[in-house]
Amino acid sequence: MSPDRSVAEQLSAADPALTISEDELIRSRQRSLSFLNPEVTYLTVGGPVHNFHRSPAKRHWRSFAAAGLVAAAVASCIVIGSDLVEHPENMAASPPTSANTLAAPFNAGKSSLPGRTVTDSFGNVDYYTTVSGETSAEVTAAFHLTEKELAEFNGLQPGAPLAPGMKLRLIPAPGPIKGAKGTANVDGNGIPTSYTIEPDDTLDGITYRFGITAEQLAEANKVPYVYTKGTTYFVRAGNHIQLQKNPVDSTSGTGTAVNNSFGRTIFYTTVAGDSFDSIGYKFRSTTAQLLQYNPSLAADRPIPVGTKVNLIPGQLKIDGAQGTFTADTDGIPQTYTTAPGDTEAQITFRFGLSDEANLEWANHPLTGTDRVWYAFTDMRTGELAPGQTISLNVTKPLHK
What we know:
Layout: H1 3-14, H2 22-30, E1 42-44, E2 77-80, E3 83-86, E4 91-93, E5 117-119, E6 125-129, H3 136-142, H4 147-154, E7 167-169, E8 184-186, E9 192-196, H5 203-210, H6 214-220, E10 240-242, E11 256-259, E12 265-269, H7 276-283, H8 287-293, E13 308-310, E14 324-327, E15 333-337, H9 344-350, H10 356-361, E16 376-378, E17 383-384, E18 389-391
Antiparallel strand pairs: 1-4, 2-3, 5-6, 6-7, 8-9, 9-10, 11-12, 12-13, 14-15, 15-18, 16-17
Helix pairs in contact: 1-2
């Protein structure tokens, strides 16, 4: 058994939400930085750059931005002691648009029609109640559906007259569809709240059936991303996933953020109304991760206003990143001195560099064709030689 196969099997066995092939593990470790593309869009995670502010997500039936998994799947998990902890990846490359995919509906925000609406936790309109004189053409135009879709969702004939007071579904009718054949839970208003994934389910099928975007699905589950490529990540049979967020205080999320040189938020100072949920949704970090990175916090107590919350392991030494580091006056890591057994992937994760390419960019050689100047004890596993001081800051690189 090769070292990479062993690691891949351990990761897959330890975390039922992750499947990674040996080839992907090898490719993720061999990835090199050939250029820095200023046109690439980075997402804040989970997510899943944490301080990236997006416009309200909109659901499009005919133009869905589907997906590809970030190549460094192995960096999405770390081992702390004997526990596998999901990586709250902060900066994932924007997934490419894929043609011929199911699309999520464009029903976000307020309706231009006067009837009553029922929205989900993201503001997507899932139901609309008609008023006197409204036609199906007016409803479909307002919610960017076709008359065929509206008819299918509600068991109507296309173009049939609408009676006042009809509660129309703007998402597919309940029940299995191709790509989303599992069982869903709904609340008292008919909003889908959670779902158990079945074999052969797809991300497109799930987002289509429940009228949400992939980004909204990632936010609801406090993960960096949910798209797939080559193997499965997140969309895996048996996973019980959330389709909605819990209510959070409207004043939450407005605290001060501190970013590292790669644009990732690594510290956040809380304001009134902040909670583990509000921080988790904004920065794609689970409560377990926040508690692990912030030993002074407790799950059964509110987070005090003015608390500087760590969003990365940082001070917490983890397997594969056991060395020491320096930081500036804001606490932003600047340099790191490697310890035996340290790897690029784990150093990248511990200090919120998001991708090994960022570590490489901060430590690019002055001459030659090597991708980095620092030395390895094992190139295949990405293990670095101990005792080397490397840069964690792209604005203060160490080029040798």
